[in-house]
Amino acid sequence: MAPFSKPETVLKQAEGLVSVGQTPAALQSLTEMFNSKRFRSTPVASLEPIMIRFIELCVELRKGRTAKEGLMQYKNITQNTSVQSIETVIHTFIRLANAKVVEAQEKAHKAIEVLDVDDLEASESPEDILLGAVSGDQSKDRTDRALVTPWLKFLWESYRSALETLKNNARLEAVYQASRISALSL
Length: 186
What we know:
- The protein contains nine helices and no strands.
- It is mainly alpha-helical and 186 residues long.
């Protein structure tokens, strides 16, 4: 990225990169903006939409560590001026991670349904029948492990990042408690 650009310009540049399929590059440009020194003096009103887009890209690419670093930077800037903004960004982060888990569960369920549909003209060999009887629901377990487990790990990492971002701050205590309760209710 060039010397510090206006936040709105960086957001437009990131949107342009996403529209041409360069999502990692868009995330990188937003990350560079967060690491610049002039980022701290940017008004919160123009930072919140950028932060929400940053979180969306992190969730889409499953970049939990990058999201955590961005959340920490954002908290340090806004904790004294706009607690509501931090709360909005954290809730967006958790909501998007939850949505990805639900989406993965639906994909796994559809994949299992496709496997369960039997072709009436295709006959199963005795080996397939025996293997199916012995293995039971292993295909469901394998599908869940491949599709759902990575997103569940990301969701748990998201909750940890949110809680670490919110801890040890009296102004953020209510948001911390609400996040903790929702994490434990998984």
